[in-house]
Amino acid sequence: MRAPNCGERKLTELDYIRLKKFTAPGTFPELADILNEAELLPSRCIPPDVVTMNARFVIRDLKLQRRHMMAVCYPADAEPATGAISVLSPAGLGLLGLSVGAVARWVGPAGEETVAQIEGILFQPEATGDYVT
């Protein structure tokens, strides 16, 4: 599955460097596509309304009309029950680098398509001056 919303994504240079380590030949082609197509910005220049690594944000499932608080994190830190989703999951890949107002689509583990809009950023490390999280 190709990552949705190509061309709309912004990533910090630091997130790019750290995520590039997951893209050995033949692994995580969706992530490789995102990394190749995203606009890269220094951490200090990333807009505060962008989903970056370890940012906490609210999405609204447009089919179910339900809100969820989430955070995109590295695989070792993922705890889906608390909303901490791995960047390598379909949802993580669908949301990373998008801005408030963007609509993301992904297919879940049971084959169901989720369509969700990013409603707000609750916490973004870069917005608080944390450029190394």
Automatic annotation (TrEMBL):
InterPro entries: GreA/GreB_C_sf, Tscrpt_elong_fac_GreA/B_C
Signal peptide: none
Pfam families: GreA_GreB
Stretches assigned to the Transcription elongation factor GreA/GreB C-terminal domain: 47-115
GO-annotated molecular function: translation elongation factor activity
Keywords: Elongation factor, Protein biosynthesis
SUPFAM superfamilies given in the database record: FKBP-like
Name of protein: GreA/GreB family elongation factor
Species per Swiss-Prot/TrEMBL record: Ramlibacter alkalitolerans
Lineage, top ranks: Bacteria, Pseudomonadati, Pseudomonadota, Betaproteobacteria, Burkholderiales
